[in-house]
Specification:
The protein is mainly α and 160 residues long. Helices cover 69% and strands 2% of the residues.
């Protein structure tokens, strides 16, 4: 759960501990739903391993993050990015690591990220992943990340 900023009572922020918990929860949910994600996998080939690869990749980061005691946002981004890159499995794992690498570029500059900063981080994560893929295809995790980032930025701008 995000915390209210002390400077603005109506603004919620994400600090390092909260972001770490978000990643840990995401890793657990991907693990729980990996077979469903595997069944969705049809591109570039229907090899049925996207959920498994994402789970293995995220669990590598979760393992490293569980060792970190009360980390700040910059440190969570560093740990996550490094662990995801080292533990990336398959194309989906590499793309997942790139999404977080891009997000980290934005979030590492904040003690706490408000909605606008987090939206910017989502958009940067998507842009980073798109740039790294030689022939990005729509209908993949790239599309999902782009649409999520675009929607978050639009919502943040509308609700300033």
């Amino acid at each position: 759960m995000a915390t209210k900023s002390s400077s603005q009572s109506s603004v919620y922020t994400i600090n390092g501990e909260i972001f770490r918990d978000m990643i840990l929860e995401a890793a657990a949910e991907i693990e729980n739903e990996k077979e469903l994600i595997n069944a969705l996998n049809v591109f570039p080939v229907p090899d049925g391993d996207t959920g498994t690869n994402m789970s293995l990749t995220l669990n590598n980061a979760a393992t490293e993050l569980q060792k970190a005691s009360a980390p700040n946002l910059k440190r969570v981004c560093e740990i996550t990015s490094d662990a995801l890159l080292r533990g990336a499995r398959g194309n989906s794992g590499v793309i997942t690591s790139l999404l977080f690498k891009g997000m980290g570029r934005v979030l590492k500059n904040h003690e706490e990220a408000d909605g606008a900063a987090f939206a910017e981080a989502l958009a940067e994560g998507s842009a980073t992943a798109y740039k790294a893929v030689m022939k990005p295809a729509e209908g993949t995790i790239l599309t999902v990340s782009r649409l999520a980032g675009d929607a978050a930025v639009k919502f943040a701008r509308k609700n300033r």
